[in-house]
Amino acid sequence: MDGTPTEANRIDRVRELLPEIAQIGDDTLRAAVEQIWAQVWKESDWADLAEIPKNPSAPAAPQRVPDAWTLITHSRAVAQLAESSAETILTLHGIPYDRDVLLTIALLHDVSKVVEYEGTRDAIAKSRTGRLIQHGVYGAFLMWQHKLPVELVHGVIAHTPSSRGVPQTHEALIVRYTDFLDTDSMLLDAGEELYLS
């Protein structure tokens, strides 16, 4: 993207990078997800969301497909894994879920990493914000600002072991486990210690 993107450009780019947002049926939730991603991007030094690695391990990790180990790819993977897991649980156990809630939590669970990390695609480190504020808290704060329901805010806070809270809704539980699944799959492939450890 050339120059400083406008708000509309940012929203368009978020939609392009995260097509799963379009699957959120509720207009208010869908718009909030787009606006929160655009806002953290604007607050960051990243030129493009597609360039943000998932974490500091990313530059040294195997890149088996284009854009592997990026924050965007991880967010998409968690959204897709969460939905397929929820459907399996619904089909085989009869436990219902709210698709819009699930996708909103999944797509926002790591949005704060946009400001928690700084650097380049090849050299990433925690920012001052990332060192001082627990992971997920800033994303949850932005969700509060957008007046999203407390269950959704809870899902973002409870997705990480950094939080003392454990998931209290099916949607939050599914996002926590699918986040671990995607992350640990990448860590195992890179020969690094798993979150599970």
UniProtKB/TrEMBL annotation:
Residues 67-193 form the HD/PDEase domain. It comes from the Bacteria. InterPro entries: HD/PDEase_dom (IPR003607), HD_domain (IPR006674), HDIG_dom (IPR006675). SMART domains: HDc. Signal peptide: none annotated. NCBIfam families: HDIG. This is HD/PDEase domain-containing protein.
